[in-house]
């Protein structure tokens, strides 16, 4: 006992007496920290510093403030935004024939292009004073989602001008002259924008773009002015084939020192009319049979004046930071909107098909194998819409949460892929026969496009989410890095000492509380609500502490190597991601009034995220390099084992029951799915409603056939007629059953083509 007391006193003295602490702990740790500090390129540093820390910071804290989550405003459309949805969006959707667009014309009809321009679909984010709509991020997202359920080509065409592009960059960084020149013409559709960043040699590594702009004197409008001699080759540029104004990213050089001593100024963005001398609109791409405009652009020795740099000369070399900040906002709107639309469409149509399609004499939705996939569609759709709402809501708070939007982009596109695959599996042959009435095929073809753009998913998961999150969202690491970079070593050490002591307390608190909550299954943890969701808040708080302590240890043990240990860091990124996804589900459930019908979907989504968190931790522990540290960490986070599991069959069956019943809940779950009365979606929905209305009569008919009252050998039509003739059915019921069966047969039919028609 006396030895323990002596040791305790020694530890207290070491930490309490500053001079001793500095010599024995802080100074050696400071030297080690500077040595293991991961080297950052200029582009990495700018990406790290760009954007805002938001709810992701709470999730990294180990003790999220759930009341803060509840206090975030509920994302809602304004009256004018709702009116636009009811008028212009509905009108546009009625104009679209996606089969004609994709399979025949390979383009939107002229009348659709004209309507998009004149009605301000390209000006959703442009202020009203310039002639734009000035809509919120949630409205922008909702409009794109709704259009996407009818035509991915039209949705992408609307999405791009309102995402990363000249409009966004001009609003944030443009000079007054540039805004006055370009924003009105972009708003009224006179000009169509595109933005060129990606090239043959620079995709995810945008910092390596070879495109150049050299400062020199040249002629412009008959005068000698200082400007840039540009050379570029870009590809994968959406709207490039039809754009009238080109946003261009390039590296800027000043070899003759015309602007100062700096020879390499860095990535710069400029705005160039596509009819400017030397600008060449190149060949068109054809991304997976999709008809949205996408192609190449080139320029050789193109001279532009310096004031064509977005933001003017003072923004020379600031292009990468501008792009990262704008891409962060756009990434939280565009692809999440498309992914949520996949869920809305797949949920509405697949739930209908599961009722309408029959095999072995019953609806396929009664087979548990189908129910498992249908429940996954419904549960993930609820999560997709939750994430869409909360992420777009963050942007409407005038934030640019780069980590959160990277999470949304990666996980929503991957969930969208899962949902679409399940929908295709359930539709089977009907899903793969392309034709005017196939509502899944073009979305299925477009899924890989979403996976690859705005940061390929592999890059986003393995480098961006944890790479930025661990540094930006951690309460101490970025500050410690800043202290290590200070030139005054004594001042740096003093600042580092204070941060280190707080960091140690932070880590010790998280480790001890993670262990306690692990032993007690978070029974004594606090939750901001009562009821069936309270346990989820407790479990997510526990996993937040687990993430915090594992992150600290991984960064301490691996240092700069963690940057290259992508499999390790990505798994911690998965933990953070699913903490965020589950948070959005809880937020939506509260915002929408804790509706009882939502509970199976809430449970499915959160239990799925907790399972994925458990799997990510398993992978982290299994592959962490130091076996002793690994053993200790595993016992801290999961002292009695990892007991997270996939959602139960009971929850899955409850979801299927809700999805296959017409009514308020199903409509809420799929409210963004456009049902076209003259196309496949309308045919399927009408058949679903008709079959549901007559389900009791069809059930009776099946029972009569089993008992022998109606011959079992008769098909449905024959059985209905036999039951009518034998007074088992009234005429009105027989007529309604015939009508429902006619719609059913029409719904399960697939498109056929005559010889030579294709």
From TrEMBL:
Residues 194-292 form the Acyl-CoA oxidase/dehydrogenase middle domain. Belongs to the acyl-CoA dehydrogenase family. Residues 471-753 form the Acyl-CoA dehydrogenase C-terminal bacterial-type domain. PANTHER family: ACYL-COENZYME A DEHYDROGENASE (PTHR48083:SF33), MEDIUM-CHAIN SPECIFIC ACYL-COA DEHYDROGENASE, MITOCHONDRIAL-RELATED (PTHR48083). It is an enzyme of class 1 (oxidoreductase). It comes from Pseudoalteromonas aliena SW19. It comes from the Bacteria. The keyword Cytoplasm does not apply. InterPro entries: Acyl-CoA_dehydrogenase, Acyl-CoA_Oxase/DH_mid-dom, Acyl-CoA_Oxase/DH_mid-dom_sf, AcylCo_DH-like_C, AcylCo_DH/oxidase_C, AcylCoA_DH/ox_N, AcylCoA_DH/ox_N_sf, AcylCoA_DH/oxidase_NM_dom_sf. Keywords: FAD, Flavoprotein, Oxidoreductase. Its cofactor is FAD. Residues 317-462 form the Acyl-CoA dehydrogenase/oxidase C-terminal domain. Pfam families: ACDH_C, Acyl-CoA_dh_1, Acyl-CoA_dh_M, Acyl-CoA_dh_N. Its EC number is 1.3.8.7, 1.3.8.8. It catalyses: a long-chain 2,3-saturated fatty acyl-CoA + oxidized [electron-transfer flavoprotein] + H(+) = a long-chain (2E)-enoyl-CoA + reduced [electron-transfer flavoprotein]; a medium-chain 2,3-saturated fatty acyl-CoA + oxidized [electron-transfer flavoprotein] + H(+) = a medium-chain (2E)-enoyl-CoA + reduced [electron-transfer flavoprotein]. Pathway: Lipid metabolism; fatty acid beta-oxidation. Residues 83-189 form the Acyl-CoA dehydrogenase/oxidase N-terminal domain. This is Acyl-coenzyme A dehydrogenase.
């Amino acid at each position: 006992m006396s030895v323990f007391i002596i040791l305790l006193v020694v530890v207290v003295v070491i930490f309490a007496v500053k001079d001793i602490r500095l010599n024995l702990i802080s100074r050696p740790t400071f030297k080690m920290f500077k040595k293991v500090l991961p080297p950052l390129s200029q582009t990495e540093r700018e990406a790290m510093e760009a954007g805002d820390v938001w709810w992701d910071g709470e999730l990294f804290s180990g003790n999220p403030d759930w009341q803060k989550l509840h206090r975030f405003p509920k994302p809602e459309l304004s009256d004018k935004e709702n009116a636009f949805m009811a008028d212009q969006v509905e009108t546009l959707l009625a104009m679209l024939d996606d089969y004609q667009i994709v399979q025949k014309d390979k383009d939107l009809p002229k009348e659709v292009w004209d309507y998009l321009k004149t009605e301000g679909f390209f000006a959703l984010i442009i202020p009203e004073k310039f002639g734009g709509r000035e809509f919120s991020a949630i409205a922008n997202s909702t409009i794109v989602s709704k259009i996407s359920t009818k035509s991915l080509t039209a949705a992408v065409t609307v999405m791009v001008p309102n995402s990363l592009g000249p409009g966004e960059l001009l609003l944030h960084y443009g000079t007054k002259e540039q805004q006055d020149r370009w924003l009105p013409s972009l708003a009224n559709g006179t000009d169509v924008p595109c933005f060129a960043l990606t090239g043959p040699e620079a995709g995810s590594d945008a910092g390596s773009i070879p495109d150049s702009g050299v400062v020199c004197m040249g002629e412009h409008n008959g005068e000698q002015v200082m400007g840039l001699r540009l050379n570029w080759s870009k590809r994968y540029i959406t709207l490039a084939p039809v754009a009238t104004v080109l946003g261009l990213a390039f590296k800027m050089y000043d070899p003759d020192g015309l602007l100062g001593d700096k020879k390499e100024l860095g990535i710069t963005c400029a705005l160039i009319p596509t009819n400017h001398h030397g600008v060449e609109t190149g060949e068109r791409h054809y991304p997976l049979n999709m008809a949205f405009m996408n192609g190449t652009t080139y320029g050789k020795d193109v001279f532009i004046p310096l004031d064509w740099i977005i933001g003017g000369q003072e923004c020379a070399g600031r292009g990468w930071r501008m792009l990262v900040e704008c891409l962060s906002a756009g990434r939280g709107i565009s692809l999440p909107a498309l992914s949520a639309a996949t869920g809305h469409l797949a949920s509405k149509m697949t739930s209908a098909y599961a009722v309408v399609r029959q095999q072995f004499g019953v609806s396929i939705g009664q087979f548990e194998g189908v129910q498992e996939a249908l429940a996954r569609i419904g549960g993930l759709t609820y999560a997709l819409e939750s994430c869409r709402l909360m992420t777009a809501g963050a942007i409407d708070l005038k934030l640019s949460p780069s980590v959160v939007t990277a999470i949304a982009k990666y996980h929503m596109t991957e969930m969208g892929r899962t949902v679409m695959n399940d929908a295709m599996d359930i539709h089977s042959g009907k899903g793969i026969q392309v034709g005017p009435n196939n509502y899944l095929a073009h979305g299925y073809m477009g899924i890989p496009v979403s996976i690859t753009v705005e940061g390929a998913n592999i890059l986003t998961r393995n480098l961006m989410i944890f790479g930025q999150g661990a540094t930006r969202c951690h309460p101490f690491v970025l500050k410690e890095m800043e202290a290590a970079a200070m030139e005054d070593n004594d001042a740096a050490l003093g600042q580092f000492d204070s941060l280190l002591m707080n960091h140690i307390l932070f880590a010790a608190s998280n480790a001890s509380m993670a262990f306690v909550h692990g032993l007690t299954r978070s029974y004594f943890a606090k939750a901001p609500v009562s009821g069936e969701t309270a346990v989820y808040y407790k479990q997510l708080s526990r996993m937040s502490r687990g993430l915090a302590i594992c992150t600290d240890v991984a960064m301490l043990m691996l240092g700069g190597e963690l940057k290259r240990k992508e499999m390790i860091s990505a798994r911690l990124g998965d933990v953070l991601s699913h903490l965020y996804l589950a948070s959005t589900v809880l937020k939506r459930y509260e915002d929408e009034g804790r509706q009882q019908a939502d509970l199976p979907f809430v449970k499915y989504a959160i239990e799925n995220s907790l399972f994925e968190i458990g799997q990510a931790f398993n992978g982290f522990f299994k592959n962490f390099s130091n076996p002793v540290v690994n053993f200790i960490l595993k016992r801290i986070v999961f002292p009695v084992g990892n007991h997270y599991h996939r959602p139960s069959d009971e929850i899955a069956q409850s979801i299927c029951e809700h999805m296959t019943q017409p009514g308020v809940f199903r409509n809420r779950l799929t409210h963004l799915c456009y049902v076209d009365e003259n196309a496949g979606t309308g045919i399927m929905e009408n058949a679903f409603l008709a079959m549901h209305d007559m389900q009791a009569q069809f059930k009776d008919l099946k029972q009569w056939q089993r008992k022998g009252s109606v011959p079992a050998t008769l098909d449905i039509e024959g059985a209905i007629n036999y039951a009518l003739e034998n007074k088992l059915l009234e005429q009105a019921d027989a007529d309604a059953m015939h009508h429902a069966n006619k719609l059913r047969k029409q719904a399960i039919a697939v498109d056929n083509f005559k010889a030579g028609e294709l």
